[in-house]
Specification:
Elements: H1 15-67, E1 82-85, E2 88-91, E3 117-122, E4 127-132, E5 135-141, E6 143-152, E7 155-165, E8 171-181
């Protein structure tokens, strides 16, 4: 820094020194802003990915818990877990049909519900739905694909993929896959 001593002893910075200090301040501020923007974007992306995983696991858990109560033991005899299409499965749950408070009848056979449960993916609305009679419930939204496949006569494989889009337009996906052993 050069000081000029002129009339009255005024001191000041040269134009070059002022421009250099200003550009350094601007550079440091810009780097801080970019770092903060990237940190916020990373936090947002991580939160969105975590929420998608959580939603996928919640829907998968609900399906697995119900499907474990269903059966696929004898072809053509309800309550088989029937794969209607790759994205649609139908099955029955045990129910107290005779009103005795138990899900087994007098001879010890399981009583099966009359109205089956269905899981179906609606591609247009990107929703996985559970339907039983007139009642429909959305298990997950933002679903990009669902697959139900028979592993063998007593097991089904379920695959669920959810997608989310970040504020910057980046596509995130979370998948969950389970193999469910059906009730004998």
């Amino acid at each position: 820094m050069r000081h000029r001593h002129g009339n009255g002893g005024n001191r000041g910075f040269t134009l070059l020194e002022t421009l250099l200090a200003g550009s350094l301040l601007l550079s440091v501020t810009l780097m801080g802003f970019l770092w903060l923007t990237n940190a916020i974007d990373l936090w947002s992306t991580t939160s969105l990915q975590s929420a998608a995983r959580s939603d996928a696991q919640l829907a998968m858990s609900r399906m697995v818990n119900e499907l474990r109560q269903g059966t696929r033991t004898a072809a053509g005899i309800p309550p088989n877990a029937d794969i209607i299409a790759a994205d649609h499965v139908r099955f029955s749950l045990p129910a107290d049909n005779d009103g005795n408070g138990k899900i087994v009848d007098a001879i010890g056979a399981i009583e099966w519900g009359i109205v089956p449960v269905e899981y179906q993916w609606d591609a247009a609305s990107q929703q996985l739905r559970r339907a039983q009679g007139a009642q429909t419930q959305v298990l997950a939204s933002g679903v990009s694909s669902v697959a139900f496949a028979a592993v063998n006569t007593s097991e089904l494989q379920l695959t669920l993929t959810l997608q989310r889009r970040t504020s910057r337009g980046r596509q995130l996906s979370a998948s969950a896959t389970e193999i469910v052993k059906l009730r004998n």
